[in-house]
Design brief:
Number of helices: 14
Order of helices and strands: EEEHHHEHEHEEEHHHHHEHHEHH
Helix content: 40-55%
Strand content: 15-25%
Largest sheet: 5 strands, mixed
Oligomer: single chain
Shape: globular
Distance between the termini: 24 Å
Mean pLDDT: 94
Strand order of the largest sheet: 3-2-1-4-5
Length: about 325
């Protein structure tokens, strides 16, 4: 790094944002956490406003650093298209927080956190949390990614999608339009209700806030583990989608025939539900047998910090320190 010997590492997700100030030797000087980062909802400028108090907080905590640091490494949710990355880069650079700025989709932070700190960065990362996304890096800087902006870009899965699918199946089971499933009892019971009709009304009238739907995937997995056919179908479909993303990304990069890390992250995957994890492992063994799946539980801001060290040309000791900071 340059004059200050410091960089800002940012991981901004839909529900929370982490900012860290990292020294060139790998010491984490300060951290801060704030709210979600949602430019599609509030616009680019207001989304970046969320970062401002967090940046100010870490700079103040680190002995009152006033001027711009050397580099800012930001991995941001909703930076799904290159044009979105460019707009966010322009807005963040305009704030004057760092001499140089790089912005990438936050799935690249998971990939960086899961890859070794030496050698050419080659691998694929799939995040399955509230949503689902996949990116990959190949030889000589080759990159592959998916738009991952919902159904219109062909996506299936993630916690929010699984919750909606479970609600759909349970509603139809109760009113007679669909096959019977224990989900029709388990989903209302999670909220202290008796029927799906009660749950539908409570969600529609906002008596249960919409964001609480994220509580439903664990109930889905519990019902699936108990043997419910429809619930198991949804979990199996999720495993198939993750394995398909991995295979397609590896194939695009020409890596199907060589041992390649496949980094897995996000709440749905880090929970390691046996039904999902075992089926996914089986599918990867069948369709991408050289893939080396690895679940990363460290926070994605670690990937942002490691990327900042990459930019600085840091030595091995720096990487070890920053990894220890996040376990």
């Amino acid at each position: 790094m340059g004059l200050t010997g410091m960089a800002l590492a940012i991981d901004a997700g839909n529900s929370k944002t982490d900012v860290a100030l990292v020294a060139a030797d790998g010491n984490v000087l300060a951290t801060a956490r704030g709210g979600g980062f949602r430019p599609p909802v509030v616009g680019v400028e207001r989304a970046v406003d969320v970062l401002a108090p967090l940046v100010a907080a870490v700079l103040a905590e680190a002995a009152g650093v006033a001027g711009p640091v050397d580099h800012l490494s930001a991995f941001l949710a909703n930076a799904d298209l290159p044009v979105e990355e460019a707009r966010l880069t322009t807005e963040i650079a305009r704030r004057g927080w760092a001499a140089t700025v790089t912005v990438r989709n936050d799935t690249f932070a998971l990939l960086r956190a899961g890859l070794p700190d030496d050698g050419e960065p080659v691998g694929v990362a799939i995040v399955c949390g509230a949503g689902i996304n996949c990116v990959g890096l190949g030889r000589d800087g080759a990159t592959t990614r998916f738009p991952s902006i919902g159904r219109i870009s062909g996506d299936w899965g993630g916690g929010a999608h699984l919750a909606d699918e479970a609600l759909w199946c349970a509603a139809r089971a109760e009113d007679g339009r669909g096959a019977p499933t224990e989900l029709a009892r388990a989903l209302p019971a999670h909220f202290g209700l008796t029927t799906m009709r009660e749950l539908i009304e409570a969600l529609h009238l906002h008596e249960i806030p919409g964001h609480r739907r994220h509580e439903l995937p664990p109930a889905l997995f519990a019902v699936a583990t108990a043997g419910d056919r429809l619930a198991r179908t949804l979990v199996t479909r999720q495993a198939e989608e993750i394995a398909l993303l991995a295979r397609v990304a590896l194939d695009r990069l020409g890596l199907l025939d060589e041992p390649t890390p496949v980094i897995l992250g996000g709440g749905v995957l880090t929970a390691r539900h046996p039904l999902l994890h075992n089926r996914l492992t089986q599918l990867l063994a069948e369709h991408a047998p050289k893939a080396l799946p690895h679940v990363v539980t460290a926070p994605p801001v670690l990937g942002a910090a490691l990327a900042a060290l990459d930019q600085a040309g840091a030595g091995p000791g720096a990487y070890e320190r920053v990894r220890r900071a996040w376990g």
